[in-house]
Amino acid sequence: xxxxxxILIVEDEDAIRTGLVDVFVYHGYEVESARDGREGLDxxxxxxxxxxxxxxxxxxxxxxxxxNAIRRVNQDICIIMLxxxxxxxxxxxxxxxxxxxxxxxxxxxxxxxxxxxxxxxRTKGGPExxxxxxxxxxxxxxxxxxxxxxxxxxxxxxxxxxDLLQYxxxxxxxAVPRExxxxxxxxxANQHDIETRTVDIHVAKLRRKIEASPKEPMHLVTVxxxxxxxxxxx
Length: 234
Known about the structure:
globular; 2 domains; Arc Repressor Mutant, subunit A; alpha/beta
């Protein structure tokens, strides 16, 4: 059994897939690949992979469907989606289905490697699951089970959403800058070199889950010029 990080690349364009395999092998990863969605899903569910690099536009089964199927049974594998579709709706859809981040095509290999290393670093050295805490709107958050409870209503979160909630709760006395969230929740040490709206999209996702009126948030608020602040109980 190898101790090396295992990556699965699901990409239908032969030149891109072969190039990515060569690059990741060169950088010391153990790599497998698939050329369509169904093959990728089968390998992802059978293999013990640490990270999946997943194209959205795939034959037989879209990357969205692959991501959704994986997240139904596995919350631990990291998923980075490759997309030539960069509209907000497409990006939000991928992240809502449980992807950790996205990279828009065309991309630089250096940028993709940076994203992969950051996501893996944060996942393997991520925060311990905190005890249950309560938001100011009486939603009880259970980090260990990735759920929230308000009365009889249950809200489910992805692991990345919960990491974000936990960090904001731990620093609830202040507004947390977007750059700090990229560094501490996503693991991007050189966040100024990162072009991503991942933080903002995850905040929007969380607001749809915890706010009565997501467009007029009362609990996960934006502090102009300072960042985001979560109003939660001690």
